[in-house]
Amino acid sequence: MNGRVRLKTRQNSQRIWPVILMGMIVAVAPAHLPAQVSLSTVVDLAQKNSAAVRMAQADVLKAQAALDQTRDAYIPNFVIGSNVGYSYGFPTGQPSVGSATMQSLVMSFAQRRYTQAARAGLDAASLSRKDALEQAALEASTAYIELDAVAFDLDLVHQQEGFSERLVKIEQERTEAGVDPLSDLLQARLTAAQLKLKRMHLETRSAALAKQLAALSGLPSGSIVPDHASIPEIPAVTADSAPRTLPGIEAAGALARSKELQAKGDDLSWRRPQIGFGAVYNYDSNELNSYSTYYKNFTPNNISFGLQISIPFFDFALRAKARGTAAEALRATVESEQARRQSEIQIAELTGNLRELDALAQIASLKQQIADEQLKTVLAQLEMGNGASGGPGAQPQLSPKAEQLARIDERQKLQDALDAGLDLSKARLTLLRALGHMEDWLHELHAK
Q1: Phi/psi at 309 (nearest 5 deg)?
Q2: What is the pTM of this model?
Q3: Coil, strand or helix: which one is 70?
Q4: Torsion angle, CA of 46/49/55/59, rounded to 10 degrees?
Q5: Domains of the chain: which residue ranges?
Q6: In DSSP terms, which residues pair with 37 in a beta bridge?
Q7: What percent of the chain clears pLDDT 70, i.e. is strictly above it?
């Protein structure tokens, strides 16, 4: 009995060990196997991983620090220190063992402008960050939608290659039988070679898009499989669809305002007085010097405080600085106006291209429908014959190669229609971005 139990236990352990080993292999296997990832997930990862977004975030932090610095000028600072040293003979300095100083700005006409300029700079940095987020979303969405379309195109090309292989085989048999000339066989082989080249081109494009999505999202290369169901329908917008100001253009305007306020502050700095507050406490000692020998009424504790009023009369350096910042403000204003005009031109060009692409997509769809109907006609004729006898004027009976040619043509027309739809979708997304409606697309994307 004990022998049977030991034998059964040994057999069970022999069965368990392979399962454990398989689990260990799965655990240490690469975690970047291809898997379906939704478009919203890719867009979120692209916005978090984007270098432009992270640099824009750093600019926001820097602008916030600049604003805090201008406002904190009115908050008194507090600094402590010590100046201990030995002196012989007549003392050359105050024998301070410990000291504390406090300084702050009380009134400044220029500082108010500087604070307003820093606040406008923070607005510009925040808008630039929003613009970078939208650009990252556009790039990720465009690459994702194109990768999904290329994957479908590859399936169609694989089907076409299967049809072309059967076509070459049929032509080979017909040529050997003397039914068709050699040129028909060569044409069939040419079609197969062209489809092979097309498949290689699509595979190269698919690999490039996979690399691009990996760089945008931070995921391992080749680990993203598009989920077609996660792509919402792109709205058909036009230039008349209530255009909004782009965050990038608003950022340029805010930066111009910041430069103007900075220039006004520099101009006031040499035209208006400034008042500051200061206080000093010193604890003096006579142990290491002969200070009390030369100065009577020596006391260890000394305090002084008061206001400092500065009235500029002739400060050519400040006047030159004001002229420089005024020139920078003028340049920023011109750049803001130029960005607005370029946006209007871009919207006009995109609108015209969108109308053309819409017409091309409609034409490609009609061609695909015609090819589909022609394929049905060919299949019906092959199945039932041409319905006529072999008398004079009767149409010749279709050969099996007609079916393969019709199937190849129908798949090609379908692929052309899909490519036209892809170009139309990319143009619509770009126009959405140019019209300032990218945020609406992102809301719809996350609600998908």
Answers
A1: -110, 125
A2: 0.80
A3: helix
A4: 80
A5: 38-337
A6: 226
A7: 88
